[in-house]
């Protein structure tokens, strides 16, 4: 198996690597910030314990003025911090530090509000600090400071931002790739149609000349006419794919039957053709007949290659539960391996020695971009065959 160079797959690989890098950066930031939060949490706990010890010492000891002044400075050092604290004395009364309280609130209402705040603080799961007084015990409940909470949730916001940035970059690269592909397709199609136009006009003139000369065999002239008509169809296809194609209501059964009749005479006679129409009525579908026949041709020729010119080829027409027309093209070929299933529609991918890897890509583009349908591999099994399915709106 020979695979051609696929620059688009390589670009996709770089995009995946970029996205993985963004995730790694976000996770590292999350880990690093979590370490900072843990250290800050320990520091705040030490501050509260220091405050509690100084408060307990000041209230239970008879110290000189100088030591008391020192203890007052320790307590004062905690006055301006942002750690919310609630002190519960032996009688169950509550007092607070660093908690905003409405002005002119009665003592009873203050106690109610502090009990509510106490319930919120206890959600931070910080163990209360016990103060062992001479005749009773008091408790200091404290929560996390605003800075600690910001640091705790900051890495999550940062990770989301990195992921959004990575996704936006991925979508940008993907849009650029699609735009580049479109320009390549359109440019190639227009140039091909232009290059075919001149020799086709000449061939048409020669056919008319042969028809007027009785010395030429009419059967040969008739076959030449078919080939010229075929070239004209190919030119029309490239012209249509290089611009916005015009869709018309076409009888889907008649379209496929007519084209299969034409194709059957031009491929291996060792291929057994069959056509199974399960539609109850003659459905019409909006098609560009030239382009849609190209889709059927590419899939069928791909199937013939997979069977090495010997086997069976079956086309089934049916209607799905959601009122879509399903066209199944099944062959008895070598099948598609699991690792190649996701690559069959990739530009440049081919398992044939002389394959360009554009036939199925082109077919998918025509079905999905121009006819708003779907083309996918319905089923494939190694050495048993493959079924491609086309879905179209009625």
Automatic annotation (TrEMBL):
Membrane-crossing residue ranges in chain numbering: 12-33, 153-173
One Pfam family named in its UniProt record: HATPase_c
PROSITE patterns, per database record: HIS_KIN (PS50109)
Keyword presence, Mitochondrion: no
Catalysed reaction, written as an equation: ATP + protein L-histidine = ADP + protein N-phospho-L-histidine
Keywords carried by this UniProt record: ATP-binding, Kinase, Membrane, Nucleotide-binding, Phosphoprotein, Transferase, Transmembrane, Transmembrane helix, Two-component regulatory system
Name listed for the protein in its UniProt record: histidine kinase
EC number in record: 2.7.13.3
Single GO molecular function: ATP binding
Keyword check for Ribosomal protein: no
Source domain of life: Bacteria
Source species: Arcicella rigui
Domain Histidine kinase intervals: 191-394
């Amino acid at each position: 198996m020979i695979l051609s160079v696929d620059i688009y797959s390589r670009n996709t690989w770089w995009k995946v690597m970029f996205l993985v890098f963004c995730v790694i950066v976000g996770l590292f930031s999350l880990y690093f910030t979590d370490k900072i939060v843990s250290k800050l949490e320990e520091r705040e706990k030490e501050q509260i314990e220091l405050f509690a010890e100084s408060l307990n010492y000041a209230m239970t000891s008879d110290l000189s003025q100088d030591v008391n002044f020192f203890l007052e400075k320790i307590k004062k050092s905690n006055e301006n911090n942002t750690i919310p604290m609630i002190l519960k004395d032996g009688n169950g009364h509550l007092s607070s530090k660093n908690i905003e309280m409405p002005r002119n609130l009665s003592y009873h209402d203050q106690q109610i509000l502090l009990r509510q705040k106490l319930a919120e603080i206890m959600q931070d799961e910080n163990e209360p600090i016990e103060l062992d007084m001479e005749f009773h015990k008091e408790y200091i409940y404290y929560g996390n400071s605003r800075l600690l909470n910001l640091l705790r949730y900051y890495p999550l916001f940062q990770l989301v931002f990195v992921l959004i940035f990575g996704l936006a970059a991925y979508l940008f690269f993907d849009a650029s790739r699609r735009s580049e592909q479109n320009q390549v397709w359109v440019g190639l199609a227009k140039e091909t149609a232009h290059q075919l136009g001149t020799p086709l006009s000449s061939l048409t003139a020669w056919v008319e000349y042969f028809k007027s000369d009785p010395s030429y065999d009419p059967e040969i002239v008739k076959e030449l006419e078919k080939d010229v008509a075929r070239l004209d169809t190919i030119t029309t296809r490239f012209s249509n794919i290089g611009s916005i194609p015009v869709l018309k209501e076409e009888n889907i059964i008649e379209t496929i039957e007519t084209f299969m009749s034409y194709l059957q005479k031009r491929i291996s006679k060792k291929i057994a053709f069959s056509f199974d129409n399960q539609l109850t009525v003659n459905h019409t579908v909006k098609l560009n007949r030239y382009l849609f026949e190209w889709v059927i041709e590419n899939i069928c020729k791909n199937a013939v290659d997979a069977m090495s010119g010997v086997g069976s080829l079956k086309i089934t027409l049916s209607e799905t539960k959601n009122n879509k027309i399903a066209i199944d093209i099944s062959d008895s070929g070598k099948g598609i391996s699991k690792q190649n299933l996701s690559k069959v529609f990739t530009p440049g991918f081919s398992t044939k020695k002389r394959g360009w890897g554009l036939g199925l890509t082109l077919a998918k583009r025509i079905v999905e971009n121009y006819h708003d349908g779907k083309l996918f591999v319905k089923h494939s099994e190694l050495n048993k065959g493959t079924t491609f399915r086309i879905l179209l709106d009625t």
